[in-house]
Amino acid sequence: MQNCSIALQILPLENNDSRRIKTIDNVIHYIQKRHSNVVISPFETVIEGELDELITTLKECLVLAGKDSNNIFANVKINYGSILTIDEKLSKFS
What we know:
This protein has helices at about 15-35, 50-70, 85-90; strands spanning about 5-10, 40, 45-50, 70-80. It is an alpha+beta fold. A four-stranded antiparallel sheet has the order 2-3-1-4. A hairpin with a 4-residue loop joins strand 2 and strand 3. The longest helix has 18 residues, at about 15-35.
C-alpha cells in the first residue's frame, strides 16, 4: 500500500553545466532503478511508495549527488497519508 509521494528536485550548485547535468542524471537513474512508479518532469522527479522506503531513497539521492558536487540544494515536497496516486492525479489529462 502506498502512503507517500515525494517530489524531488536536486540542484547541484556548480558552475559547470555538464557536471551539474551529470549529477542530476545520476540521481534520476538511481531513482528509476529503485522504484517502478516514477514520473520525471523538467523541474522535478516524483516517486510513490511507503514513507520509510522513500525517505531512505531521498537520503541516498542526496549522498549520491554529493559525490559529484560539493554543494547540493534540494527542493522536496512530501505528501503522506491517504494520498492520490500519480495515475489518479494525471489520468484525466491523458
